[in-house]
């Protein structure tokens, strides 16, 4: 489990390897490039204390990067440069060239650099889609995948409105926030009374024009500026009146006053989405007497404190983040699951119908992002390197807590900047009533939505661990938490959680890993499972250590517990997984480990999909389309399963460790559940979980010392020609295999390498050395032993035929996952049938996890596994073998 | 926000005297048979209230003369909602009360408040009704009780008038009015009845708000309606029902630190469902932009 550090190193090495390779060099290089870019930015403000976080961020980037880099085709293509036009907050346009394949953050960083903006985490870049809806660029996704059509035109906007602008460090940041707010006001998105228009307008004048000067300023001087949607002469006169009284006020002061007033507006920073009520409403939602609430037009407002529900201008309900256990979307519907109130027994789910699926997803993303930014101490499970396969969404950004800490380190002299003659009319440029925000950076949660493919094995166990730490540490320094998480298994759990949130499958994988450990001691295994289960239950029921109920605070720190939410998600994800298991027809019964295996399968799926995406991309097919399809599919499955039933299933699992699950799942189906559901665990739940978690941790630790896990992945590819096809494809895409390894990032990269004809052997060793003292300290605090993990990943690849860049993305015909296990071995077989350009290809990926003491001869086990695989599929060839070896070392042994 | 200062800073109070027709509500279903009101006593109590406002608290008092044709015109709180320099002239539920607004509107104009109409009889009010006794302004936001006299349309008009603020609708139980069960007891303090219906309302308010308020529960519903004013002297005044009218609740008010408590009788008006705050409109003419 302690793979984190290992993972990093692994990831890096693969990249290096890739660089060496010619063909891949083009494709893969991006990941390395990305890192430097992102890192510097972070470094700029980050404190030493923050390093842990930064690392996390980086890691997440990497993982995503590695995932993206899979596509074999990339290497072939030339570097295309695209011209981007970004409309800045002052209304001016900034044109910059970026590589077509560049990720969103590249563009964002360039803009911020241009703007000389350091506190950039509050901002984002939007792009209007075909429906003219604003979508937030995902910094971790390639631009070309996010822009389907039309010119590359963007807007730079405030994404997270700081509840207290006073806490911003730099005047320049406040200045940009002011510009955004002026635009919000003039466009009507931010409604104000006449008096407020007057007041804010007067500060605007002071900031832009300086002191009132009767000689220089004609009577009309204010008419050039826009203050309100409907600007009247009377308003301008009042503005002048006030302006006259500001003599001596500096622009920065005027902006501060502006913000201090604007922030109190009730719609400040509220991102509105049109929706209709669905089904039974929360009692408070019920409209006036006798009115049928079904189908009532409402607005959903996402803000720093939670979700607001408006009917016309009236606020009819409000759900603070702590009140929300889970958010999800299916098709056009958006759901929130509400924690039961003081006098209520059951949680309730409220549904809203949005205009279309994209709107539902957009809303979901915004919620996830806002929750993460404002309520979490750190982004939820940074896309675990392990899981990186699955979720497309990574929360690469910082939370408000992080950005505040980082900003505190800004040491540069206040930058001089020109308050461009307020682009007088620029303010009116955005006319859309409500900015639509999408999360670019989705925390683990995002993964859920995006990653159809996101399967994270880590989920359950990891999640649990996280919870513990949270509960214990919440009060404590966040950094420590992170570090610890990373360093120790518990730390891993955090990441896992994230992943878990994104993808249930991941959670399963984790279990698998655990399971192996369990092998050493059966008892442990059971406990693990139980722990995970407990976590789930806890999510729904338990009170969190941090009582948020009272909190209406904007203070992120207070809410630090938010991670609980992550846990919640995890449970949900579990639920989903369970559901999946249930729903799919063919089922091989297996132990809980099987479940974990399944997760692994899911991961595989994802990768397969990812590949597909990549191919598509080359083909100029936008990812999102595919994603959407996936989502849709997912939704279908989801719909088939009752939420409640899912929950029930989960509970059952928890109670019975032995529950068997059907292995066969259709990839699509699997993906969808994950994507669709995001659950947040409330703090209360966390507390409950804590107990379970602790146990788990201990168990893990003990196990970890002894554990040695080896995962062998075989990929067998069979290609057959269709009648129509002239071409034979000999080599299957290795990517799937890599994905199987999910938690091993290097392996993922390996798939990408497969394209290369050369056989590549990689060996990555990661020492736990990265762990810092902080970690150990934290561990001590937690009474959790530090477990160092040593990870080795070796990839054997058969020479493969390079695919043409032009190759059509394959059409997935079917996917099947079978899991079997013996005492020390868990085998997951994933069979994918794809049709590409008339050639049908069958790929079989086997993932074998061998767990147990060093007593086991792993080499022999590997040989045996390969032999078996060959015997089972005589007509297929082994194209790739990835060996991932993970050894946990006791702290004493490792360096501390 | 421009008008957002802590609740309680008022400089003016507008009241309307008790008419001779006090208690003889036109068309009121229930006759006065059961509830006999003492006109003289009501007028005395009214005098005590205005006296306290003027002399104890130090408010400028504007008294609108009574109109015998308008037996309920003394409930002046219902006909206007004032925040900052804006006065929303409401549209009371009862047809016969709607002409009460005229005198009030004049006063508002004289005080150079921005007067906003609710659409009036002919306007596009769309059946909107709103009465001030269903509106609680906390200094940060509005709560509007959806009651027998105030509907959602009316609340929407209010929300449209005071755009700076969140306007939340809350249910009011048992045919009461929002202000019957709660009132402000300080800048961040809400005095709330502990009745079951009030608790339900309070829960909703707690859910809807972005802010945190202290809640001062009082066992008797009649005690929950108080008038809090931070007077010109910056002292905290609380006008509340005297011990003889709500014996169990008076002790609760003692908890308010450094307050000047002004027990003010209101037994006659309360027989007609009114309370202290029903009798006056509070205005702050000293705007302080910060």
UniProtKB/TrEMBL annotation, chain B:
Provide this UniProt record's keywords sorted from A to Z: Hydrolase
- Superkingdom classification of source: Eukaryota
Q: Does the keyword Ribosomal protein apply?
A: no
Q: Which GO terms describe its molecular function?
A: hydrolase activity
Family under the similarity heading: Belongs to the DDAH family.
Q: What is this protein called?
A: DDAH family member 2, ADMA-independent
Species of the source? Nothobranchius furzeri
